[in-house]
Amino acid sequence: MRYQIRILRKMAAHRYKFCVTILLLSSALLFITLLFVTLSDHLTSKDADKELYMRRATQYLASEDFKNAEREYLKVLRLFPGDAVAARELGVIYFDQGRLSKSYEYLQQAAALEPENDTVKLKLGAVYLAVGVKQKAKRAANSVLTRDPVNEEAVLLLTDAARSTQDIQDARQRIEALRQQVGDRAVYEVALGTLDLRQLDTAGAEADLIQALQLDPSFAPAQFALGHLYWMRNDAKRADHFLAMATQHARLRSNWRIGYADFKRANGERETADLLLKEITQKAPDFLPAWVDLMNLACREGRVQDCVKIADTILAEEPTNYAALVAKANLKLPLESLQEFARLRSMYDRVPDLHYQIALKQLSIRNVDQAIDSLDRAVALDPDFEDAVVLRDELKLIKGDAATAIASLTELIKREPPRIGPHLILADAYLIQHNSGEALATYRRMSDLFPKDPQPALLIGMYLARQNRPADARSAFEEALRIAPGYLPALSQIVKMDIAENHREAAASRVEEQLAKSPTVPSLWCLKAEIDLAREDYDAAEAASIKAIELDANFEPAYLLLGAAYVATHRLQEALEQLTSFANRNKSPAVLLQIAMIQTDLKDFEAARSTYEQLLTVEPDSAAALNNLASIYTEKIPDLAKAAHLAEKAWKMMPNDPYICDTLGWIYIKRAYYYRGLSLLEQSAHKLPDRPEIQFHLATALYSTQQISAAITVLQRAKESNQEFPDREKALQLLDELTTQAEQVETHW
After folding, report:
1. Under DSSP, is residue 390 helix (H, G, I), strand (E, B) or coil?
2. CA quadruple 627, 629, 633, 637: dihedral sign
3. Considering only 31-40, 88-97, 337-346, 472-481, which range has the smallest mean pLDDT?
4. Following DSSP, what letter does each residue of 176-211 receive, concatenated?
5. What are the tens digits of pLDDT across the range 311-320?
6. CA 206 – CA 538 distance, rounded (Å)
7. C-alpha–C-alpha distance, residues 714 and 709, integer Å
8. Is the pTM of this model over 0.90?
């Protein structure tokens, strides 16, 4: 009985445990079910929110309301950080706004999620191209064209990325292959025309672009490219027609609209250009390229406050905007600017243009070696960065390394499409090597490569003039004018030759003819003033100079000529006032030099000293300023040690200049370095035999080295000169003393 009771108790205990277990399992199942339902509701809610945000974003995009579209896509990414569509669309929005840093960030994210998406590839490629990484842009375009041979964006990206001769050849072959594969299309003709233009084949480019419009009369890229071609040809009417057609149906946020505004401004329609840009910035204030265009214009025109204000507007939209950061850095003083550029390197160290900008700023403080290092960095990042290559090689010429410059430029010319800049520096390099034959050959090759450019003929003429071949030089200048009638540099050279050859009426006739055609060109009025000065018609020279100033209040040559007219008529104070008014606005070395010379003529030597020292802060290597200031410290404000330092620096730069040799030689005589002074003064007197003051200096040196007879001969020449000079009385006194001394010696013997 007890055994049965024990068994019954055990069974009851097991039933209790079983019931408890069942109850616990049921509760757990109920909790899991409720949790699943809650999570399902939550997930369903997130999906619903995403769908709502995406739908809104799509609607905003359709109406180009980028700000609200951006907000909706960001909401999606907060819910689903790995959403490829939201990342991609944000990248595209930022690209269309010109916010390249943000665009790159989201396009990179989208590329990781959708590695084969063509839109992402092309936009990333365009970002790479914008910052100078052309090879990545080219790879992106080729990748898309492999799958989609008619993708217009890819064709145009490939074309834009082709800059070197090899890249242009590769792009041309690829496009020709695509054309054979799928037939001709307008975009292929635009691409071929663009490549032709890059190789200076304007006739071929025009034919290709016209063919593009025959295939598709409304194809905007063809219209814009053809308009740009006519702009290059100075055919303003046809350029305006096609550029206007291209922008007529362009999106509000379009670089074509900016290009059209730039065209209008370049053709004198500034108000129209300003209205076009104002319309963009008012209707699409988030479109940064329009603001950048306005900022660059303000910076170029010296409107510093406007430049800073617009840059701040851009940076409020995109704090890392490259163009705005560079513009603000460039407005600072050189050392502060370089510090700012150093900070920018943390963001943009692989952007070639940044290192180019740093080099320009280093040059502004004459740090040539560091500038070359920065340019080396830019070229290492982009070997086809022509501006950087040319500037670097130009600096190497200054450093005396012509051989390296020649090798680099020769390679660049082989690799790049024809450009006149590298040829110009290459010719200079040959001249520095005294290889005039190669320099002339380079100029002649330029004439063949650029038959419609007057520069090669001008340079040939200038070379021939230096070779004392005036007739041949004149023929070359005439050829430059045949290529480009009214080309001012060539006209100026012919006018100077006419003046030198006493053909002043012929010179006047040439200039009057051009003034009748272009009366608003300040340079022409300055040429007229030069002729009037040569004819000693100082009133006419004054009037012509003033007319040039009225046309351009900051035109330096006009002030120099006006000053010369006043000096010629002994109106020194008026000359000083006009030149000082210009110098207060523009620290021009030439104007400061003329001011100091007038102050010297007025015997205001302290003012002249101050002006020369101011000039040397602007241009430390001005040999004229160094020499003239040394003269003041020699004669007027005696400090022979300082005078010697200045004159020696000038002489090292121009050791064969007779005036500098005279200044330094005279300082050496005053410091009792007679033989060193004699050598320099002999060189100076040989080159300037008609300058009695220099003859007096030489005679003093000869006397100081016990060469009495030679000193008398030189002093006799100075006495016979009709020119007045400050030390004439001293020269005559020394001549009398030496003559008497010589007679006494002769009598004694």
Report:
1. helix
2. positive
3. 31-40
4. HHHHHHH---HHHHHHHHHHHHHTT-HHHHHHHHHH
5. 999 999 999 9
6. 51
7. 9
8. no
Give the span between the Cα atoms of 154 and 141, in whole angstroms: 5
Among 493, 491, 485, 486, which Cα is nearest to 464's? 493
pLDDT digits (tens, 9 = 90+) for 634-663: 999 999 999 999 999 999 999 999 999 999
Structure tokens at 640: 């022979």
Question: What per-residue confidence (pLDDT) applies to 44?
Answer: 64
pLDDT in tens, 669-680: 999 999 999 999
Residue type, 624: A
Res. 266: pLDDT tops 90: no
Calpha distance 103→96 (Å, rounded): 9
In whole angstroms, what is the distance from residue 641 CA to residue 664 CA? 11
Tokens 């008497």 locate to: 740
Taking the CA atoms of residue 210, residue 212, residue 215 and residue 216 in that order, the dihedral angle to the nearest 10 degrees is: -100
Q: In the prediction, which pLDDT does 301 show?
A: 82
Residues 305-324: b if buried by 16+ CB within 10 A, e if exposed: eebbebbebbbebbeebbbb
The C-alpha atoms of residue 490 and residue 422 are separated, in whole angstroms, by 21
At CB < 8 A and 24+ separation, what contacts does 441-445 make? Answer: none
How many angstroms separate the CA atoms of 563 and 552, rounded?
Answer: 16
Q: Please state, in angstroms and rounded to a whole number, the distance separating the CA atoms of residues 254 and 290.
A: 9
Task: Check whether 28 has a pLDDT greater than 80.
Answer: no
How far from 150 is each of 137, 147, 166, 187, 700, CA to CA, in Å?
Answer: 17, 9, 23, 8, 86
The candidate with the shortest Cα–Cα distance to 284, out of 90, 61, 72, 64, is 64
Q: Which amino acid is located at 562 in the chain?
A: L
Please provide residue 365's backbone torsions phi and psi, each rounded to the nearest 5 degrees: -110, 20
* Residue 343 burial by Cβ neighbours in a 10 Å radius (0-12, 13-18, 19+): exposed
> Residue range 65-76: average pLDDT?
91
Tell me how far apart the alpha carbons of residues 661 and 648 are, in angstroms, rounded to a whole number.
Answer: 9
- 26 pLDDT band (50/70/90 cuts)? low
For 88, the token pair is: 């991609």
Rounded CA-CA distance 513/494 in Å is: 14
Mention every residue, 6+ apart, whose C-beta is less than 8 A from residue 343.
none
pLDDT cut 90: percent of the chain above it: 65
Chain centroid to Cα 344, Å, comes to: 19
Q: Residue 302's pLDDT band (boundaries 50, 70, 90)?
A: confident
- List, in order, residues 6 or more apart from 572 with CB less than 8 Å away: 566, 598, 601, 602
Distance (Å) of CA 359 to CA 182, 335, 671:
47, 13, 42
Over residues 511-543, the pLDDT tens digits come to 999 999 889 999 999 999 999 999 999 999 999
> Counting Cβ atoms within 10 Å, is residue 656 exposed (0-12), middle (13-18) or buried (19+)?
exposed
Higher pLDDT, 97 or 13: 97
Cα separation, 586 vs 578, whole angstroms:
13
